[in-house]
Structure formats: structure tokens, C-alpha cells
Write a structure and sequence with these properties.
- The protein is α/β, with parallel strands linked by helices and about 270 residues long.
- It has two domains: about 120 residues, Nucleotidyltransferase, domain 5 (2-Layer Sandwich); about 140 residues, ATPase, nucleotide binding domain (Nucleotidyltransferase, domain 5, 2-Layer Sandwich).
- Helices cover about 40% and strands about 20% of the residues.
- The chain contains eight helices and ten strands.
- The strands form two sheets. Strands 3-2-1-4-5 form a five-stranded mixed β-sheet. Strands 8-7-6-9-10 form a five-stranded mixed β-sheet, sandwiched between helices.
- β7 and β8 form a beta hairpin.
- α3 runs parallel beside α5.
């Protein structure tokens, strides 16, 4: 049996294919300005990598920011549920999931079988998200990889008082003008992201083992800052960006095994 999970975020679109319960292939593409098109392209690429025909896919679950824009989805499920399921599948001991996406960040406390017990989300502004990191990298005249390298070189963090993306960008420009080393500014920004995550974690109650997902989990400097702030080691999946899509695919497998297909409602 073949099923698919599609995760449409504000910055990237992921597709995961499961065949007989095993991960067959996955894809990650920029979402761009058209979520519908990005979803279709992500699915086509994942199918191609798996060597599977579209007609073989028994069920598709969509999740994420743009899940309502996936016309071929048989079901739409919130990203909270999908990240919990995907993380527990990859790391069975998961009890807390930290997900930093393009437009929001969230901390999810999960039970032993991946059932969501509580969560807290920052979705009112871009502070502490992937978009925040992109804007700050541009202010430092580098890309995200360069930002990470800068932060790793810093002996100490610069003090960044603003959490708002707009004000933080202005503060970074001011610090550069004052001659503050870019390395220290980058590390200070990592600490700002960690502070935001810690505030969410304290709201839900942090329980180990803690898994970090999303594209920002690829930044070793942010991961280190979050780990220090929370006082715990973080588990980072081999490909942290596909965890939500994987969870969607796992739920799709459950639906596909049922006698009839449910309608496309939000879970």
C-alpha cells in the first residue's frame, strides 16, 4: 500500500511517500507564491524518486500552513498532530517536539503513542521563525549557511533586546554601525530565538526526550542556543524538514486501511 503526506509551509513544501509502512521517498521544494502548484510539484518529485505511479497512491493527507490549498488531498490534518506523529515515529521516546517553521514556532508535548497532550504556538509574528532568520541573515549580508558559520565563530553573543523582526533588523543595522562583530550579532540572534522557544516550552512543560524539527533545526548554532537555554540535549532527525509530512503520511496510512475514505475535514 502506498500513501503520501504533503506539508505546505510558507517557505517550503515537503512530500513523503510511504510504501508498505516504510519511507520510500521524500522531496523538499520552495513554496513560492503558489501553494497549490508547490504541492503538486512536491508530490510529483517524491513519486519520481520512489519510482511510483500516481495511480498507486491510496490516500493523501495534507498538513501545514497551506493544507487547504492542496486539491488532491483526501484529508487535511493540523501540523500539530502531524509533527507529533512524525517525531514519535522517528524517535519513539519523544515527549516534546520543538518545531521552528517559516512563519511560526511551536512546542508540543506528546504522550507515549504520539498523542498531543498540550502545545503552545507563536503564530502572531515572525519572531523566532525561519522568516526571522532569513531577514537577519540578509541584514548581516549573508545567507543562512553563512549566518550559522558566523555564529559558530563568536566567543560571546551581542545583546539583542528586540524580538520583533522589524525592530530586531534595525537593531542589527545599528550594532553593525557601532562596530560590533557580525559573529557576535549572529550568536546574539540565536540566543533571541532560544529565548522565544524557552518561553513556549515553559508554557507547556518540558519533558524529555526533546526532538527539534523544521528547517531551523539545521542550524547548529540555533540548536546549541536552544539546548543551553532549556538545559537539555536535543535530538535532531536526519532530515528535520520532513517530519510534518511524514506524520501526515502515517495518518494517511491509517485512513487508507479503513473500509471507506473519510471526507476532507480538518482533524
Amino acid at each position: 500500500m502506498v500513501v503520501a503526506g504533503i506539508d505546505i509551509g510558507s517557505l517550503s513544501a515537503e512530500a513523503v511517500m510511504l510504501k508498505d509502512g516504510e519511507l520510500a521517498a521524500w522531496s523538499i521544494l520552495p513554496t513560492g507564491a503558489d501553494s497549490r502548484r508547490a504541492a503538486g510539484q512536491a508530490l510529483v518529485e517524491a513519486l519520481s524518486r520512489a519510482g511510483i505511479a500516481r495511480e498507486q497512491v491510496a490516500f493523501v493527507v495534507a498538513t501545514g500552513y497551506g493544507r487547504i490549498s492542496v486539491p488532491f488531498a483526501d484529508r487535511r490534518v493540523t501540523e500539530i498532530t502531524c509533527h507529533a506523529r512524525g517525531a514519535v515515529y522517528l524517535v519513539p521516546g519523544t515527549r516534546t517536539v520543538i518545531d521552528i517553521g517559516g512563519q511560526d514556532s511551536k512546542v508540543i508535548r506528546v504522550g507515549p503513542r504520539g498523542v498531543v497532550e498540550d502545545f503552545a504556538m507563536n503564530d502572531k509574528c515572525a519572531a523566532g521563525t525561519g522568516r526571522f532568520m532569513e531577514v537577519m541573515a540578509r541584514a548581516l549580508e549573508t545567507d543562512l549557511e553563512g549566518f550559522n558559520r558566523l555564529a559558530e565563530k563568536a566567543a560571546k553573543p551581542a545583546a539583542i533586546s528586540s524580538v520583533c523582526t522589524v525592530f530586531a533588523e534595525s537593531e542589527v543595522v545599528s550594532l553593525i554601525g557601532q562596530g560590533t562583530p557580525r559573529e557576535e550579532i549572529a550568536r546574539g540572534l540565536c540566543e533571541t530565538v532560544a529565548d522565544r522557544v524557552a518561553a513556549l516550552a515553559h508554557r507547556v512543560g518540558l519533558v524529555e526526550e526533546v526532538v527539534m524539527t523544521g528547517g531551523v533545526a539545521k542550524s547548529a548554532s540555533v540548536v546549541a542556543a536552544v539546548s543551553r537555554k532549556l538545559g537539555v540535549d536535543l535530538v535532531i532527525p536526519a532530515e528535520p524538514q520532513i517530519v510534518g509530512a511524514l506524520g501526515a503520511a502515517l495518518i494517511a496510512r491509517e485512513f487508507a486501511s479503513q473500509a471507506k475514505k473519510p471526507s476532507g475535514k480538518t482533524r
